Amino acid sequence: MQKTLFAKILKGVSLFTLMLPLIGLQSCKDDPHNYDEPKVSIEPTPQNNTFVFEQTAGSNELTIKTNRKWSISTSGEDWFAITPTSGEVGEHKITVTVLANEGEAREGQFTITASSKKFTFNIQQKSKSGKEIEYTPLSVLIEKAKNVGQQGITIDEDLRIRAVVTTHYQAKQFPFAAFHYIQDAQGNAMVATLMKGSGDPIEFGTQITASLKGRKLSNYNGTVQIELDGKEVVKVPNMAIEPKDATLQDVLDGKCINQYIRIKGVQFKTYNNVLYYDGDFSTKRHIVEDKEGHEATLEIWKNCVWGGEKVATGSGTLTCIATTNVSAKSGKVFHNLRPTQKEDIAFTEARFNVGGGDPTKVSSFSVSSTSLNFNKEGGTQTLTVTTDAASFTATASQPWLKVTADVPNNKVTVVCEKNTSAEERTATLKLEHNGVLRAAPKTITVNVSQSASGETPQPKGWDGGVIKLREASKAGKTKVEEELTIEAVVLNNIRDNNNSFKNLIVSDGKAG
User: What CATH architecture is 40-125?
Assistant: First the structure.
């Protein structure tokens, strides 16, 4: 009995002991403090993530250090090879071998994969004459497209560009996912799109290299676009790019066309319970302002993933693309702002007062109309209030008007009863905000009018119809000898204030 019990205890201990490594392993995996992110370093460190080889055949030895098992894949070119192509955790030597180049300068890439992380590097080889790859500044393309319309032109030169993607396609802030703003090392910027079915959208911060011969260059209302074959684009992810510091005045002056910029010290001019996007148009436009009073338009695309949220109420830093649009009708140039992720709108500071002063005071208070007209049937009408006040009220001067203030949606609903009188009637609405007077009026008066019913009211005690005259009841009046029937309109009440009958004044509408 004791032996059996001991065996059971020993068996239980053995099972628990076997489980300890698994428990420890699970705990380390789930504990974010013990998680070691996959890392890869390579020496010598390449400039601009690129290894450059001479035109002659040769090889270079590189050192890889990684904390994960790793593997290497290439972009498929047959003029270079890498060995070995996989390894364990630690430090390893790899060899890159290139064939002699008998033609123009060329480029490929290889990617080191460590767990879920990918690290991509370029390999370039000089031309037969010893020239390195020359990249065409985007300014050259912009100049070529100056007088080109949406139909575009096909590039017939052997041009090559290198630029970095400056937009986040996941936010859906542009017409379609494969629509990217790109910027080169000189700060020139434009749009790059991908041919349909030629690859996935490109991540923000990815450096792209592409040959342009045979590609379409177009100009959409002032924005130059190049259409690329995604399968032929060399991509190097995680190439950091810093936004250019700018001001609203710089944007308005056209100094940042299509560039990735950062503007400090701005806020939404109208912000109280305002959504980033609502309505039926392709974009919703907001006004942002700085302390000097400069204003620019910020655009939110209809499919924006954060469009249903309320705009930021504070002030701070805006990171965005300075977009450009030229009106086809007037030729006027519009310089607008387009953030490409919600985090680009970092308005975490208190609001400021344009020109100085107390930022808690109300700067705007207006209504969509200061007069309302109703027909005799009455009905419902809605006023839109524009204000940065925290709240406002609405009251009516007459009981036949019912008014409701919908503060969260900046609306005032006015319900008018039917008018049964023969006279037009008027009233006023008073809208008042709860803030401190500054540039905005404290109250707004809305005049309301309603049409008359168009019917002559019948006197009290009168049921309409014809009047029968038998005889005059007062002495001295002509007696009517026979019964007469006339059609007439009563011009006074039958009963007086004491509810006593009195003489009727009637008219048949004819002279006399």
Answer: Sandwich (2.60)
One digit per residue, pLDDT tens: the chain, 512 residues?
A: 444 433 443 444 444 444 444 444 444 444 555 678 898 999 998 887 889 999 999 999 999 999 999 999 998 889 999 999 999 999 999 999 999 999 989 988 899 999 888 888 889 999 999 999 889 999 999 999 998 989 999 999 989 999 999 999 999 999 899 999 999 999 999 999 999 998 899 999 999 999 899 999 999 999 999 999 998 888 888 887 999 999 999 999 999 999 999 999 999 999 988 999 999 999 999 999 999 989 999 999 999 999 999 999 999 999 999 999 998 888 899 999 999 999 999 999 999 888 765 555 677 889 999 999 999 999 999 999 998 777 789 999 999 999 999 988 889 999 999 999 989 999 999 999 877 655 567 789 999 999 998 755 454 444 444 444 444 444 444 444 444 445 554 444 444 444 444 455 555 545 44
How far, in Å, CA of 325 to CA of 257, rounded? 10
Answer whether 307's CB lies under 8 Å from 300's CB. yes
Kindly write down the DSSP assignment for every residue of 327-366, as one continuous string: -TTT--EEEEEE-SSGGGEEEEEPP--TTSS-TTS---EE
Please give the model's pTM, rounded to 2 decimal places: 0.59
Distance, CA of 370 to CA of 446 (rounded, Å): 4
Domain boundaries of the chain, sorted by first residue? 2-34, 40-125, 138-236, 244-349, 365-450, 462-512
Q: Letter for the amino acid at 115?
A: S
Print burial letters for 243-261: b (CB count within 10 Å at least 16), e (below 16): bbebbbebbbeeebbbbbb
Region 365-450: CATH code: 2.60.40.10
CA 155 and chain centroid, separation: 34
Burial class of residue 119, CB neighbours in 10 A (0-12, 13-18, 19+): buried
The sheet carrying 160-165 orders its strands as: 153-154, 216-220, 223-228, 189-194, 179-183, 160-165, 207-211, 234-236
Q: Tell me whether domains 138-236 and 244-349 share a fold.
A: yes
Nearest CA to 376 among 331, 412, 340, 421?
421
Side-chain-side CA neighbours of 261 within 13 Å: the count stands at: 24
Strands 223-228 and 189-194, by their bridges, are: parallel
Instruction: Tell me the CATH class for 244-349.
Output: mainly beta
Other beta carbons less than 10 A from residue 17's beta carbon: 9
End-to-end CA distance of the chain: 135
Torsion sign (Cα): 63, 66, 71, 76:
negative
Structure tokens at 346: 């970092």
267 vs 23, 353, 360, CA distance in Å? 52, 10, 14
Architecture of 138-236 per CATH?
Beta Barrel (2.40)
Residue 392 main-chain phi, psi, to 5 deg: -155, 160
